[in-house]
UniProtKB/TrEMBL annotation:
The keyword Cell division applies. Pathway: Cell wall biogenesis; peptidoglycan biosynthesis. The chain crosses the membrane at residues 28-54, 60-79, 91-110, 160-176, 181-198, 204-222, 242-261, 281-302, 323-344, 356-378. This is Probable peptidoglycan glycosyltransferase FtsW. Keywords: Cell cycle, Cell division, Cell membrane, Cell shape, Cell wall biogenesis/degradation, Glycosyltransferase, Membrane, Peptidoglycan synthesis, Transferase, Transmembrane, Transmembrane helix. It is a multi-pass membrane protein. Belongs to the SEDS family. FtsW subfamily. Its EC number is 2.4.99.28. The gene is ftsW. Its main location: membrane. It comes from Arachnia propionica. One of its GO terms (molecular function) is peptidoglycan glycosyltransferase activity. It is an enzyme of class 2 (transferase). It catalyses: [GlcNAc-(1->4)-Mur2Ac(oyl-L-Ala-gamma-D-Glu-L-Lys-D-Ala-D-Ala)](n)-di-trans,octa-cis-undecaprenyl diphosphate + beta-D-GlcNAc-(1->4)-Mur2Ac(oyl-L-Ala-gamma-D-Glu-L-Lys-D-Ala-D-Ala)-di-trans,octa-cis-undecaprenyl diphosphate = [GlcNAc-(1->4)-Mur2Ac(oyl-L-Ala-gamma-D-Glu-L-Lys-D-Ala-D-Ala)](n+1)-di-trans,octa-cis-undecaprenyl diphosphate + di-trans,octa-cis-undecaprenyl diphosphate + H(+). It is found in: Cell membrane.
Length: 409
């Protein structure tokens, strides 16, 4: 027997043992999130230094802001991951209300525009928040709580769509009122996924999809800026100035090769990607600096996160847990897919950040809070509950008795 075979057996045994563990998906979600967030922080530092200097700031300006939001997000993630899903379910209405208020505040004097999208509110002189990012989490938790309450009546089309559809569409309309079509499309996709996962028939979903396509066409044609972005997707020569950013993203990916140019060595972040080098087009900088290896690593981590999240949904025995896990996982997967397809020029520019990777405090906080909720569901599958309960019993207090010296007993 070769030494290679002998050495391989312990590793193979460990993998099999880990895969059978009731907490395997919980640990894999943590692992993929930690690595994605670490890569994101590194790429924000690399891609934003040039832009920060051009704005007269320190080269560490954007990464310091990202780290501050990361610390706050981790402080929120830990209690959320330990929270009972029953408590999360009871907070569903609160989540919808907070999301609604935040999106309404965008239309008040607190709100302001960036590149034509009114999607942010300013609190004080330094803090800006994007309510639509938190609204995605609010939608998933609230929608799951609504369907959990009506779980015995979902064969009735009325209970299948009311009150979920009016509440979800209210949030979507508020997002679109800020002219953010990219976020609106992701939000609409999350709505579709929740209705699909709860078991809505295709005869209801197909007309809804056609209606959404029609609305998107109207919104695109009604905005010269959106129309220009869609036109350059089909004909880059129609507006060479707007087409330069997606073309620079392709040049970045093409020049990365197998192993990349090296961390910090991107050329396209020096103006080709404009202000999107550290936000919507950070994946292009990652591909240029870390090459195909870095690209496949990030894709593999998103695939691992998706696999683990859907496994939690499949293993859950409560409708709320299933829908929350499936909804959050779909959100991350769809948003990552849209961002990467935009960078690869397979979709028009939509202004959608890459989860955990792109610079943006609100997006990072919302993403990590959602991971906390997903971990709470992962700890509440039947096997995980039994395992954690057995550990709790095994580590219970031990009672000892010391008899006094000289006792008559």
């Amino acid at each position: 027997m070769s030494s290679t075979t002998v050495a391989a057996r312990p590793a193979d045994s460990f993998v099999r043992s880990f895969a059978r563990s009731p907490m395997a998906d919980h640990h894999l979600i943590i692992f993929s999130t930690v690595i994605l967030t670490a890569i994101g922080t590194m790429m924000v530092l690399s891609s934003s230094a040039v832009i920060a200097l051009a704005q007269g700031e320190s080269p560490y300006y954007f990464v310091i802001r990202q780290l501050i939001f990361l610390v706050v997000a981790l402080v929120l993630l830990v209690p959320l991951s330990r929270m009972s899903p029953d408590l999360l379910r009871r907070l569903g209405n609160v989540g919808w209300l907070v999301a609604c208020v935040g999106l309404i505040l965008v239309q008040t004097p607190l709100g302001f525009e960036i590149y034509g999208n009114r999607n942010w509110i300013r609190i004080g002189t330094l803090l800006t928040i994007q309510p639509s990012e938190f609204a995605k989490l609010g939608l998933v938790v609230w929608g799951a709580s609504v369907y959990h309450r009506n779980r015995t009546k979902l064969h009735n089309p009325w209970d299948l769509f009311v009150p979920f559809a009016p509440g979800a569409l209210t949030l979507l309309v508020l997002i679109l009122a800020g002219k953010d079509l990219g976020t609106g499309l992701v939000f609409g996709a999350i709505i579709f996924c929740l209705v699909f996962f709860v078991g809505a028939p295709l005869r209801f979903l197909a007309p809804a999809v056609l209606a959404v396509i029609g609305i998107v066409v109207v919104l695109v044609m009604g905005s010269p800026n959106r129309m220009a972005r869609f036109m350059i997707f089909f004909d880059p020569q129609s507006n060479t100035d707007l087409a330069s950013q997606p073309m620079a993203a392709l040049y970045a990916l093409a020049s990365g090769g197998w192993w990349g140019l090296g961390l910090g060595a991107s050329k396209q972040k020096w103006g080709g990607l404009k202000e999107g080098a550290h936000t919507d087009f950070v994946f292009a900088v990652l591909g240029e600096e870390l090459g195909l290896f870095g690209v496949l690593l990030v894709l593999g981590l998103f695939a691992l996160l998706a696999r683990s999240g859907f496994q939690v949904a499949l293993q859950s025995d409560r409708m709320f847990n299933r829908l929350v896990a499936a909804g959050i996982t779909s959100w991350f997967l769809l948003q990552a897919l849209v961002n990467i397809m935009v960078v690869m020029n397979l979709l028009p520019v939509l202004g959608v950040p890459l989860p955990f990777i792109s610079s943006g405090g609100s997006a990072l906080m919302a993403n990590l809070m959602a991971i906390g909720v997903l971990l709470a569901c992962a700890r509440n599958t039947p096997r995980a509950r039994a395992y954690l309960a057995s550990r709790k019993r095994a580590s219970g207090p031990r009672m000892t008795s010391v008899l006094a010296a000289g006792s008559d007993s």
